[in-house]
Amino acid sequence: MAFKTDIEIAREAKKQPIQDIGAKLGISSEDLLPYGHDKAKISQSFIDSVQDRKDGKLILVTAINPTPAGEGKTTTTVGLGDGLNKIGRKAAICIREASLGPNFGMKGGAAGGGYAQVVPMEEMNLHFTGDFHAITSAHNLLSAMIDNHIYWGNELDIDIRRVTWRRVLDMNDRALRQITASLGGVANGFPREAGFDITVASEVMAILCLARDLEDLQRRLGDMIVAYRRDRTPVYCRDIKADGAMTVLLKDAMQPNLVQTLENNPAFVHGGPFANIAHGCNSVIATTTALKLADYVVTEAGFGADLGAEKFMNIKCRKAGLKPSVVVVVATVRAMKMNGGVAKADLGTENVEAVGKGCANLGRHIENVKSFGVPVVVAINHFVSDTDAEVEAVKDYVKSQGAEAILCKHWAEGSEGITDLATRVAEIADAGISEFAPIYPDDMSLFEKVETIAKRIYRADEVLMDQKLRTQLKDWEEQGYGTLPVCMAKTQYSFTTDPTRRGAPKNFSVPVREVRLSAGAGFVVVICGEIMTMPGLPKVPSAENIKLNADGDVEGLF
């Protein structure tokens, strides 16, 4: 049986004018700032006008650790939103925007798949409404102003060896990880080491996704630490006087984007911090606005629950005062087999024993999410190669963990294939049984917060952090940053820092390589193992297969 590709399905979509999509949420055309016919930004004045409304129910979609077999977290997020609307509930979807780097690297698009997609797919995965370009420009304006300040006399007495603010680019480019800047003589400034991160790793991206409004945005931008003086005192963005101009550049980017699913249901697509470097969630302003306009809001957090869901709970919910009503953990039979030791080439062959063995990874995620006090449902994202015996093995295992697993066929059937999950999720959300709480208090020491996540979420025996880094954490505590949450940067492929260790490993350590203070975003980044803040392209990047066809349509993006 031949299946249509995601992009073929997306091109056949019968899209409605974006004004009609806005009307479903009570947004008038005057409050939409259209970008073409099928996407628009929602005005800040409208957002301000709905703040006194009651919030809807928040549903988080997360997943097991990603494998090459595929899990379909975004696909399930979109499908569940469509499914809730299908059963008569007023639902909206909140997902992140796609980064050009992974799109042209190895990940491909980020708009769902099959008959559970958000459209316009091509635009969403390319320039969209220009938000990432605005973030890149604002970030690099600050970089230019720092070097310019040093060039014109360095009134702030910045130690050029301690400029911590790097530049950014929305592309995977390993050659820029470490560079030497300002070469070429007196006219070009003072030579120093510098480097680039990918835009989605920028603190500006994290701030945009956590800020409540433009005033909060500018305050947070001003709070960013960009360098240190010779006496080790911090230099802030506001000292460089860049926060105002950066806010101007980010004014439009701050407004959430509205698009639609294949079934013409509303979707907010806004912000895109990396989940293994930053907090990996849709913007606070998009999520909180959606909660004022819909009875149910389905959102996702990047990568597996050990990264995305942990940060969603401990950072986003803590900062924004959000409380998820239910969490959906996405798993596939194929991924269970891979966690059970089956090679990718053999995933099409029935292997119930391997499924059972691989379920340990799923079980740990279920247990972790429950530890936040939130009820859990497992969505088994169906593949045509799955056998009944394999599906039953997953269901039986999940039942033994005190949860329920529901088979979902939204990829092939759209909302029709996910109504069982939608019905169950709505029942649990309506029951109001969530007793959500973060897993550590604000007043715990920074190192203890790192230990709590490493031991309770990853199940590590210990955290390996040298004295220099521990002293750095202590110094930040003394400077008043001890109440901040920690943002763990590690591989998404494993509970450990070793991407090859699948399943539910035990008896391992978590080595910490570096700590960074994101004072504006309001968290401390803890970089573990070999994680990179500027990825590189693979040997055969997706870009090699992306092109325009004879009709002028994009090919190879999915």
Provide an overview of this structure:
This protein has 558 residues and is of the alpha/beta class. The chain folds into 3 domains: 291 residues, 3-Layer(aba) Sandwich (Rossmann fold); 120 residues, Domain 2, N(10)-formyltetrahydrofolate synthetase (2-Layer Sandwich); 83 residues, Formyltetrahydrofolate synthetase, domain 3. The protein is built from 20 helices and 25 strands. The strands form 6 sheets. Strands 1, 2, 3, 4, 5, 6, 14, 15, 16, 17, 18 and 19 form a 12-stranded mixed sheet that branches. A 4-stranded mixed sheet has the order 20-22-23-21. The two termini are 20 Å apart. The mean pLDDT is 94.
What are the SSEs and their pairings?
Blueprint: H1 6-11, H2 18-24, E1 32-34, E2 40-42, H3 44-49, E3 57-63, H4 73-86, E4 91-95, H5 100-104, E5 112-113, E6 116-119, H6 121-124, H7 131-151, E7 158-163, E8 167-169, E9 179-181, E10 192-194, E11 196-198, H8 203-210, H9 214-223, E12 225-229, E13 234-236, H10 237-240, H11 243-250, E14 257-261, E15 266-269, H12 284-293, E16 296-300, H13 305-320, E17 324-331, H14 333-339, H15 352-370, E18 376-381, H16 388-400, E19 404-408, H17 410-413, H18 419-431, H19 446-457, E20 462-464, H20 467-481, E21 486-489, E22 509-518, E23 523-528, E24 547-548, E25 554-555
Helix pairs in contact: 4-18, 7-8, 7-11, 9-11, 14-15, 15-16
